[in-house]
Write a structure and sequence with these properties.
The protein is α/β, with parallel strands linked by helices. It has 3 domains: about 10-40, no CATH class; about 45-150 and about 275-295, Udp-n-acetylmuramoylalanyl-d-glutamate--2,6- Diaminopimelate Ligase, Chain: A, domain 1 (3-Layer(aba) Sandwich); about 155-265, NIF3 (NGG1p interacting factor 3)-like (Udp-n-acetylmuramoylalanyl-d-glutamate--2,6- Diaminopimelate Ligase, Chain: A, domain 1, 3-Layer(aba) Sandwich). Helix content is about 40%, strand content about 15%. It has 12 helices and 10 strands. The strands form 2 sheets. The protein has a 5-stranded mixed beta sheet. The termini are far apart.
Length: about 300
C-alpha cells in the first residue's frame, strides 16, 4: 500500500502541536507565531460594498446608479479590480489575475442607468453578459458615491496625478488656483505628460496666461459649466467631454468678444481614470485582506 503523504508542512505541523500544548492565548504573546495561525478575513460582495460606502456623506442613497450590475451580493470576493469602463478586455484580465469583483466608475451596458431591455437583440450585450456569468464576476458601479466622497474621489486622484493636490480648496472644490500664472502651452504640456495623453482638443490661445482652472472632469452638464464661467470667469476649463454645440460654442463666442476663458477637452476616460487608479489604493487600505488592483480600460480612440 502506498504511504499517505503528510498534508502538513513541518512548520504547520509545529504550529498545530504548539497551539494544542500552549493554547492560542499564549501564542499571542509571540507576534510571529500568532501571525502564522491567523487566517485572512473573507468578505462577500455586500460586505465590501458596505465598507466602501460607510463613510460617504448621506449614504446609502435612495436614488443612485451605483448598483450591482452582475454577480451576487452573497458571493465571496477573491480579488477586486477598479477601472473606468468595465470592457471585455478588463473582464478577461480580471479573470486572469483571479479577481471576481470589478468596481467600475462607468456603465456596464452602454447607458447611464444600465437598462438592458433595448439590447435584447444585440450580440455584443449577450456576449458580455455570458462572459460575466461564466466566470461569476460581480460588477458594482462606483460613480455617485465616489463623486460624493469629500473630497470627490475622482478629483483627488486626478489632482494627485497632476501634483496639484496642494492647490485644492474645499470651499470652492471645482475651482483650482495655481500659485503663479503660467502660459497655457506650459499647462497643457504638464497635463499631457502626467496623464500620458497624446493629443488634446483646445479652444483658446496657447500663449495666453492661466492661473485659475475650473475642473469639469467626466461629462458635466453644459448649463453648469456655463454658469461657472459666469460666476468665476476662469482662465481655463479642464473638461472630460462636452457637447460641441453647447459649452464649446459658448467659450468660442466669449473669446470672440475678448473674454479670456479657454476650454481644454481631455476625453472622458483620460479625465477620470486617475481617480479610479486612486480608488484602488483607497479600497486596499479599507480592505487589506483582499488584493485590490487597478486595470486601465484605456482610451478607445486612435489619433490619426
Amino acid at each position: 500500500m502506498k504511504e499517505e503523504k503528510n498534508p502538513y508542512s513541518p512548520r504547520r505541523e509545529f504550529m498545530i502541536k504548539a497551539t494544542g500544548l500552549l493554547g492560542t492565548g499564549v501564542l499571542m504573546g509571540f507576534p510571529s507565531l500568532a501571525w502564522s495561525i491567523q487566517t485572512e478575513k473573507r468578505y462577500s460582495v455586500k460586505e465590501v460594498i458596505d465598507i466602501l460606502i460607510k463613510d460617504i456623506p448621506g449614504a446609502p442613497f435612495e436614488r443612485t446608479v451605483d448598483h450591482l450590475r452582475s454577480g451576487s451580493m452573497d458571493q465571496e470576493v477573491t480579488g477586486i479590480v477598479t477601472t473606468m469602463f468595465p470592457t471585455l478586455a478588463v473582464i478577461e484580465k480580471a479573470v486572469k489575475i483571479g479577481a471576481n469583483m470589478i468596481v467600475a466608475h462607468e456603465t456596464l451596458y452602454y447607458n447611464h442607468q444600465d437598462e438592458t431591455d433595448w439590447l435584447e437583440n444585440d450580440e455584443v450585450f449577450h456576449h458580455k453578459k455570458a462572459l460575466l456569468e461564466k466566470h461569476q464576476i460581480a460588477i458594482w458601479r462606483f460613480h455617485d458615491y465616489w463623486h460624493r466622497r469629500q473630497p470627490d474621489g475622482i478629483a483627488e486622484g486626478n489632482l494627485k496625478k497632476l501634483g496639484w493636490e496642494k492647490y485644492y480648496n474645499p470651499e470652492t472644490p471645482r475651482l483650482l488656483r495655481l500659485p503663479e500664472a503660467q502660459p497655457l502651452h506650459a499647462v497643457l504640456a504638464h497635463i499631457k505628460a502626467q496623464f500620458e495623453i497624446p493629443s488634446l482638443k483646445l479652444v483658446g490661445d496657447l500663449q495666453q496666461s492661466v492661473q485659475s482652472i475650473y475642473l469639469a472632469f467626466g461629462a458635466i452638464d453644459s448649463r453648469m459649466i456655463i454658469g461657472a464661467i459666469q460666476e468665476y470667469q476662469p482662465d481655463l476649463i479642464l473638461s472630460g467631454e462636452t457637447r460641441e454645440w453647447e459649452t464649446v460654442e459658448r467659450v468660442r463666442d466669449g473669446r470672440l468678444m475678448g473674454k479670456n476663458t479657454a476650454l481644454l477637452i481631455l476625453g472622458h476616460e483620460h479625465s477620470e481614470a486617475p481617480g479610479m487608479e486612486f480608488a484602488a489604493e483607497w479600497i486596499q487600505k479599507k480592505i487589506p485582506d483582499i488584493k485590490v488592483s487597478y486595470l486601465a480600460s484605456g482610451d478607445p480612440f486612435q489619433f490619426i
